Amino acid sequence: MSTSTFKPIEARRAPVNTEGLVPWIRSNLFGDLRTTLATLLFGGVLVWYLPQLIDWAILRATWLADSGACRAEGAGACWGVITEKYRVIIFGRYPYDQQWRPLIATLLMVILLVASCTRPFWKPWLIALWVLVLGSFFTLMGGDVMGLEPVETSRWGGLPLTIMLATISIALAFPLSLLVALGRRSDLPAISALCTVFVELIRGVPLISVLFMASFMFPLFMPAGVTIDVLVRVLVGITLFQTAYMAEVIRGGLQAVPKGQIEAAATLGLSYWQTQRKIVLPQALAMVVPGIMNSFIAIFKDTSLVIIVSLYELTGALKMALGSDTEWRIFYVEGYLFIAMIYFLFCFSMSRYSSWVEGQANKGKQR
After folding, report:
1. Nearest one of 247, 243, 241 to 284, comparing CA atoms
2. Fewest CB atoms within 10 A around its CB: which of 90, 160, 181, 346?
3. Is the torsion defined by CA of 145, 146, 150, 151 positive or negative?
4. What's the pLDDT score for residue 15?
5. What are the chain's domains?
């Protein structure tokens, strides 16, 4: 009889941990030779400049509205200019004693945007909430009702104007871009040609030209005695401009939907609009979420161009606040850093929300 000797299996190595800070650093910062060299290069730049930046921006900074202290030898950043000018930067030329009105109006608009981006609020009554908040915004800003002092739109400015222009332009441009994108792919030659001409015509000129034409040339074609407020003309110009760009983003998503799905919908007897609403558009929009959000961010930043038509939004309000004040004019860097932080806060929030929407839309593809 033969006997067998038990031989234990050699112990395996413990699995490599792929979660946590150290594995992330090892994978993303020191994954290969090029990545390691880039990490060391940029790390060295940060090590060299970051202490100097902290020293200038925090340690030697002046926080009080004292221009003399800001001009002293060895002084760092003069954040006192923000302390002195923040109300003009935020609210522009709006009457000083009435600035509580744009403050409340802006808070209402921000709350509306947050609610619109939250799933539990995606109910039919959200449309009524939009109507209520927009009505309250224009009532507070314009006044001349309920005892409020009237304030013409030419005096609106700062952050309230930026948020209002971006919000309304996005709300109008998105549904219009859907129709234009569908129109470009239509089998009807007249509709397809009309949408194509619109897109190519708008994309062929810069936004500044569109705003200039809307503000100065459009009134020339109006009947005598008929005037349209400059704010309305600017809103129309920004909306049409972004509609053309966003329509091309959506059209890319429509082209990516397999043709076989459309043919299958036709065999089931679905109409054109049923096919688009239930099959094509959900898939197309899910594929182009980053592109759509990129257009939204572009709208928010492009509002800075309305200064050419004498509307002082956030950037224009900063130039107005510092341009005529010789005492604080030299501290424009701190002013621009301040509004850059505001722009970054809104744009970064939109980017993070885009990532969440993209993850929700693609849950069906995750395994």
Report:
1. 247
2. 346
3. negative
4. 67
5. 85-365 (1.10.3720.10)
Q: Encode pLDDT of 273-325 as tens digits.
A: 888 888 888 888 888 888 999 999 999 998 888 888 888 888 889 988 888 77
Q: What is the share, in percent, of the chain residues with pLDDT greater than 90? A: 34
Find all residues with CB under 8 Å of 265, minimum gap 6, and list them: 274, 275, 278, 279
Q: How far apart are CA 106 and CA 162, in angstroms?
A: 10
Closest CA to 246 of 189, 305, 199: 199
Name the residue type at position 94.
Y
Locus of tokens 């923040």: 86
- Rounded Cα distance, 15 and 10, in Å: 15
How far is Cα 77 from Cα 71, in angstroms, rounded to an integer? 10
Residue 61, helix vs strand vs coil: coil
Instruction: Specify the DSSP element, H or E, that contains 312.
Output: strand 312-313
DSSP symbols for 111-161: HHHHHHTSGGG-STHHHHHHHHHHHHHHHHHH--STTPPP--GGG-EHHHH
